[in-house]
Amino acid sequence: MNNDILKILVSEEQLADICQKLGQQISNDYADKKPVFIGLLKGCNPFISDLLKKVTIPCQVDYMKVSSYVKTESQDKINILNDISLNVKGRDVIIVDDIVDTGKTTSLIKNLFEQRDCKSVEICCLLDKPEGRIVDVPVKYIGTTVPNEFVVGYGLDYDEFYRNLPYIGVLKKEKYN
Ligand code: IMP
Ligand code: MG
């Protein structure tokens, strides 16, 4: 284990199991719908890659790079750094992200795609941190729930580091304090 990690929360085996289960569930739910997976960079990787290998129905994939920022106290906005190239009008869209914490990012993205006249918009997140929730956003597919701690690995970063860890772990406090 990396020396900066306090403990492992989700092991490599558990991550593989999560991708298998979610891939199968989505394949059942979206049979004949040809869904479009939209990965939110950079945190969606490697989750979306492992998930897609377990999806057994025809589908398409695209990626979007966004950053959310607070414009005023009450109005959060999403900044699109790189948009998708596929046309999603009338399509069944599944947004894929690493973690739902406050819920702001996923909620704003869901609204954005609803405005683009998609047939349906659902969210698939590897991790859910329910104690951090500020905005109530419906997340249809969740890998697993984590406590209110700062986690890294398997796509999740601190200052752009640790994305390459093959597991999800809690970062030692002295590493970000
Ligand atoms: P939200 O908008 O607060 O739901 O959070 C969305 C983003 O915050 C995620 O996509 C992550 O990039 C980041 N984030 C939230 N919690 C953590 C964490 O524990 N570790 C790393 N990134 C996190
Ligand atoms: Mg992120």
Q: Reading side by side through the largest sheet, how are the strands ordered?
A: 4-3-2-5-6-7
**SSE arrangement, N to C:** EHEHEEEHEEEE
- Kindly name the structural category: alpha/beta
Tell me how many strands there are: 9
Task: Give me the CATH architecture, please.
Answer: 3-Layer(aba) Sandwich
Number of domains: 1
N/C terminus separation: 21 Å
Q: Quickly name the level 1 CATH class.
A: Alpha Beta
| Unique ligands | inosinic acid, magnesium ion
Main β-sheet: number of strands, strand sense, barrel status? Answer: 6 strands, mixed
Q: Identify the overall geometry.
A: globular
Helix content: 10-25%
Describe this protein with a few key phrases.
177 residues; alpha/beta; Rossmann fold; binds inosinic acid; binds magnesium ion
Polypeptide structure, described:
20% of the residues lie in helices and 33% in strands. The protein has a single domain, classed as Rossmann fold (3-Layer(aba) Sandwich). The model has no long low-confidence stretch (mean pLDDT 94). The chain is an alpha/beta fold. The longest helix has 18 residues. It has three helices and nine strands; from the N terminus they run βαβαβββαββββ. It binds inosinic acid and magnesium ion. Inosinic acid binds next to strand 5, helix 3 and strand 8.
